[in-house]
Specification:
The protein is an alpha+beta fold. Among the domains are: 179 residues, Multidrug efflux transporter AcrB transmembrane domain (Multidrug efflux transporter AcrB transmembrane fold, Up-down Bundle), CATH 1.20.1640.10; 94 residues, Alpha-Beta Plaits, CATH 3.30.70.1430; 75 residues, 2-Layer Sandwich (Alpha-Beta Plaits), CATH 3.30.70. Helix 2 crosses helix 7 and helix 13 runs parallel beside helix 18. The longest helix has 35 residues. The mean pLDDT is 83.
Length: 690
């Protein structure tokens, strides 16, 4: 493929331009085809999801309150509630409403009688339509004194809109900073523009691929955030590696086919391997949100690698010496004199001490992760200016216990004695504040609501789910509701996580072995990746879980970390750490294959890769760290967590821990049993002979 690309560079660039235009036209509208509902975060085969579907079919409406209207008034509250309820019920998509004026809504008034809540239940409809309705309801009541609109459907809609707005802000912030940093790294205007063009091509290509993917399966709209950040970061990193290597080869062989062919046989192979590693590492998730991130992450990694390998080489070939046009470039420093080479040489003097000190430091930074707590998403992830957040805060403050999102028991029986027994059992469950009368809803189902002493995501409500399920053992009952959905989602994550970790670990070790032919180096890389991840999670616990820097980072702590985002962050950081490890180990192996002893090869490899890895890490941190400006807490967590992990990995781990471990191991770092040596000899990844 590379030979064909280099033989017809103008044709390749023409086809690339046509592809970019087609990708923009067809892939641009993909956001409207992606799913945005709460079911993005649930296991659709779980008890809570199945029982919710059964209740919707039986009652012809959502079993949970979709719209929550808070009415506050010092006087004439009853009249305000009546008027507001009538206005809400008049909306065609609202199936029914419940207020304190009805027997089943007695708990929807504050003890002081100054505030009331009205619940609105939507008819069955598509998620996007439900969110549009909730926004319309919010606009309907906007400006009415003492009336605020919230609820889970409006919360999801506002998160969707906020994330889209934050994405635009992040792009506007990242692109100018990335260009300035690229200008500093390459010290040339033309060379600095090329990675940005490859990044744009990568994002457009991934949007087109996503447009094709949604024809096969439903995907979450939140995948767009990952595509933008990874598309920018990976494409720029891959372009950086290729352009820097091309300049090296051009300095020795002159600009042209030979230099570019040698570049693609070295850095090109590394880019291909790195993109495949990222793609495989992100392809292991069950829920729609995580599965969408896997699909989006895999696609953007592959498209970024393809763009760097197919679009960039012909551009470099046609530019020739003009790659340095408008250059601010100083004379390049020889690799052996770079700061990375000097650091590597110093590490080699006492590699054991450096390995122990660096490893212990990373362990200490990661210690807070031992106390991590997880949660899901609700209105508290939104900024305080959002109406859903305001309603959620006021309801939590004014109404003791949980009154708008009860646990819902779907009893597959209409026998009143069976229903009475179920209700009696639920009364004795810990954290059950109240249990409603059984209500027949149709299709042979009876509904019983159980009110918790705390919010749905809080620990008392989670224990209530477990207790209620245990209490109803032997009865034809299933449980749904927000608390049950989160409980089932956590259970699905816990069940899939060992498999996901196994796939990621085995894939990483296998691919690194095929590259370097060593048994110990892939295991060392695995350990270093885990240290990087634990350090990143430790920092996230210190900041977001413990509520530090709330003013500086403009967020409100949930007292826990979002479970789904942390799974995503784990695999993303693991893949990116492997990415940088592949690049550094590839150059070290290249030096050793040229005849250098192991320690000298490490110093030589550090000298050539150190500045590049540092620059790549900084550029990637800008690309994904821009999400730290998001006003949605879990997006902020991913942005800051990934940026910190990449910086730690590219500096502490790659500059100190990796050379220290290789210094301790010496030539043993490259050892492998005879059988595995034969396997590597037959299937291993090697640079092409030039």
């Amino acid at each position: 493929m590379s030979t064909l690309v280099l033989r017809h560079p103008r044709l390749t660039l023409t086809l690339t331009t046509i592809f970019a235009v087609v990708a923009l036209v067809l892939g641009g509208p993909v956001a409207g085809l992606l799913k945005t509902g709460r079911d993005n975060f649930e296991d659709r085969g779980s008890e809570s999801a199945l029982s919710r579907e059964a209740l919707v079919a039986a009652a012809g409406r959502s079993p949970e309150a979709d719209i929550v209207v808070l009415v506050e008034a010092a006087r004439t509250l009853d009249q305000r509630v009546l008027d507001t309820q009538k206005r809400l019920a008049a909306i065609p998509e609202i199936a029914t409403t419940v207020s304190p004026r009805q027997p089943q809504g007695r708990r929807l008034r504050t003890p002081d009688g100054r505030s009331s809540v009205i619940l609105g239940y939507l008819r069955p409809m598509e998620t996007q339509t439900a969110q549009d309705v909730s926004v319309r309801v919010s606009e309907e009541f906007r400006g009415l004194s003492g009336v605020s609109v919230g609820g889970p459907v409006l919360t999801t809609a506002q998160i969707r809109d906020q994330v889209s707005e934050d994405l635009r802000k992040a792009e506007l912030l990242a692109f100018p900073l990335l260009f300035l940093l690229l200008l500093f790294v390459f010290r040339g205007l033309v060379a600095a523009l090329l990675p940005l063009l490859v990044a744009v091509l990568s994002v457009l290509g991934t949007l087109l691929a996503l447009r094709l993917a949604v024809q096969i399966t439903d995907l979450s709209v939140f995948a767009l955030n990952l595509i933008t950040a990874l598309g920018l970061g990976l494409a720029i990193d891959y372009s950086l590696f290729i352009i820097a290597r091309y300049r090296e080869e051009a300095a020795e062989h002159g600009y042209g086919h030979l230099a570019l062919t040698r570049t693609l046989a070295t850095a090109g192979r590394t880019v291909m391997f790195s993109s495949l590693t990222v793609a495989l590492a992100l392809s292991v998730f069950p829920q729609r949100f995580l599965m969408s991130m896997a699909v989006g992450g895999a696609l953007v990694a592959l498209v970024a690698g393809a763009a760097a390998l197919l679009a960039l080489p012909p551009a470099l070939l046609l530019l020739g010496p003009r790659i340095d046009a408008l250059s601010l470039r100083r004379s390049p420093r020889r690799p052996e004199r770079s700061y990375s080479a000097r650091i590597g040489a110093r590490v080699m003097r006492r590699p054991g001490v450096v390995a122990v000190v660096t490893g212990l430091a990373l362990v200490v930074v990661g210690l807070p992760f031992a106390d991590v707590r997880f949660t899901g998403f609700d209105a508290t992830v939104l900024p305080e200016s959002a109406s859903s957040r305001q309603v959620a805060d006021r309801v939590a403050e004014s109404f003791p216990g949980d009154r708008t999102a009860p646990l819902i028991v779907a009893l597959r029986s209409t026998d009143r004695f069976v229903a009475a027994e179920a209700r009696e059992r639920l009364f004795g469950v810990e954290n059950a504040a109240a249990v409603s009368e059984p209500v027949r809803v149709g299709n042979g189902l009876t509904r019983i609501d159980v009110y918790s002493t705390g919010p749905p995501l809080a620990e008392p409500s989670q224990r209530l789910v477990d207790g209620a399920r245990q209490a109803l053992t032997g009865l034809p009952a299933q449980i749904t509701g927000e608390a049950a959905r989160y409980r089932d989602s956590r259970a699905a994550l816990n069940a899939a996580l060992p498999v996901a970790l196994g796939i990621v670990g085995v894939t990483t070790v296998a691919l690194l072995f095929l590259m370097c032919g060593s048994v110990l180096l892939p295991l060392c890389a695995l350990a270093m990746n885990l240290l990087t991840i634990s350090a990143a999670f430790g920092v996230l616990v210190l900041i977001f879980q413990d509520g530090r820097l709330e003013g500086t980072l403009a967020y409100t702590s949930q007292g826990a970390l979002d479970a789904s985002q942390m799974v995503l962050l784990f695999v993303l950081v693991f893949a990116l750490s492997t990415d940088y490890g592949v690049f550094v180990l590839g150059r070290i192996k290249e030096a050793r294959d040229s005849g250098m002893p192991s320690r000298e090869a490490v110093v030589a490899g550090m000298g050539t890769t150190g500045p590049l890895v540092t620059a790549a890490a900084v550029l990637f941190c800008v690309a994904i760290g821009a999400f730290a400006t998001s006003e949605v807490v879990f997006i902020k967590e991913v942005g800051i967590g990934t940026a910190f992990a990449v910086l730690i990995d590219a500096t502490v781990v790659r500059a100190l821990l990796l050379p220290a471990l290789m210094g301790v191991l010496g030539e043993r770092a490259w050892a492998a049993p005879r059988l595995l040596r034969r396997l590597h000899g037959r299937f291993g990844l090697r640079e092409s002979s030039i």
